[in-house]
Specification:
The chain is of the alpha/beta class. It is built from 13 helices and 14 strands. It has two domains: 110 residues, Aspartate Aminotransferase, domain 1; 238 residues, Aspartate Aminotransferase, domain 2 (3-Layer(aba) Sandwich).
Length: 386
């Protein structure tokens, strides 16, 4: 008998044997500039010495403890994480789990318990995870489950009129990604976000931002609420929040959280000392002077590199997104997958999306403007066929 893996991933022919900083090291010794960053996970790059030291020290001190016990790593995480939070008069409350899907499940659980309603609004193009509740509010090609655990309403993205009609007092939660990454880094209008905030205030629905990808400094601000100027009632994050270790974080307004029984939530591994030590280190780094300035400067350099030859044979037509979550829209006669493959031949790794015309960049936040020159050089060398 031979064990086989379920055929879930279309893996790239890339024989990776290691990684250093913002480069992947291949078996033949080649180095590939990693502009995908493990899908928003490698916040501090590969092998970050500070993060490695923190993990090693915590492992030797206390690698794991049941959540029935308190420990120093939890307090350090709470202090570091709080410094980057958006202002909130009554403060924020947090619950730690293991993944973005879990974080979103907990946010939805909180919202429906708080409002005592059973309807959730989500949007075309959304992706919130593969577990039951998260999948119920994801716009995927294949249905993950035969039925949803609550009533759902899918609305068009950026459609203020439809949102105004659908979000009423029967709705318990409105959930959205501030930028819809998988859909092709689709952008919200300022009017759309402001309208959702106003509608939730009027109807009592809970506004949830899924910041699994946009959080932890990726947009050039700690959180999307600081980027857009719209603060939700709850938000979630995961991916790069612990620099490569599995984590999910659900954050809710304390005034609202106090009205929901805490025993609705629980996790065996969530909030363990090793992961929280890593997450505290990431939060510290994101809050350091100059860290987010580098994210903004590198974002500007990548934009310039991608568009420098757009009018004379370059493959990129336009750019979406912010910070280091960027969607590169290829010209109509091209396919994003073909451009990705051609870039890989030039030793640059980028991602694709559900939009066949959009590439995604989500590198480590430690990428520098100088690294962007490698993208410019690679794009110059392309000879892509549609």
């Amino acid at each position: 008998m031979q064990l086989k893996e379920i055929d879930a991933y279309a893996r790239l022919p890339l024989p990776v044997v290691g990684a250093e900083g913002n480069e992947l090291v291949l078996r033949d010794g080649r180095r590939v500039l990693d502009l995908y960053g493990g899908h928003c996970v490698n916040t501090l790059g590969a092998g970050d010495p500070g993060l490695g030291r923190v993990i090693n020290e915590q492992w030797k001190r206390l690698s794991f403890a049941t959540n029935l016990l308190d420990h120093e790593a939890r307090g350090c995480f709470m202090a570091a994480f709080e410094r980057n939070l958006p202002p909130e008069a009554d403060g924020w409350s947090v619950f730690v789990s293991n993944s973005g899907a879990e974080a979103n499940e907990n946010a939805l659980k909180f919202a429906l318990a708080f409002t005592r309603r059973r309807k959730v609004v989500f949007f075309k193009g959304a992706f919130h995870g593969r577990t039951a509740a998260a999948a119920a509010v994801s716009d995927t090609k294949l249905a993950a489950f035969p039925s949803t655990p609550f009533d759902v309403v899918k609305l068009p993205w950026n459609d203020v009129e439809m949102a105004s009609k659908a979000i009423d007092t029967s709705v318990g939660a409105v959930i959205l990604e501030p930028y819809q990454s998988l859909a092709g880094v689709t952008e919200p209008s300022a009017e759309f976000l402001a309208t959702l905030r106003r509608l939730c205030d009027r109807t009592g629905a809970v506004l949830i931002f899924d910041e699994v990808q946009t959080g932890s400094g990726r947009l050039g601000t700690p959180w999307a609420s600081q980027h857009f100027g719209v603060v939700p009632d709850a938000f979630t994050t995961a991916k790069g929040a612990a620099g490569g270790l599995p984590i999910g974080i659900t954050v809710v307004r304390t005034k609202m959280a106090s009205a929901v029984p805490g025993k609705l939530f629980g996790s065996t591994f969530g909030g363990g000392p090793l992961v929280l030590a890593a997450a505290a280190h990431v939060a510290h780094r994101v809050g350091e002077p100059g860290f987010l300035d580098n994210v903004k400067a590198t974002s500007a350099a990548l934009r310039k590199a991608a568009l420098q030859n757009s009018g004379s044979g370059g493959p990129i037509a336009s750019i979406r997104g912010a910070g280091l979550l960027l969607g590169l829209v290829v010209k109509p006669e091209l396919k994003a997958s073909a451009v990705r493959d051609a870039l890989l031949e030039q030793n640059v790794l980028v991602g694709t999306s559900d939009d066949p015309q959009v590439l995604r960049l989500s590198p480590a936040l430690t990428l520098t403007p100088a690294d962007a020159t490698r993208l410019a050089t690679a794009l110059d060398a392309l000879a892509v066929k549609a």
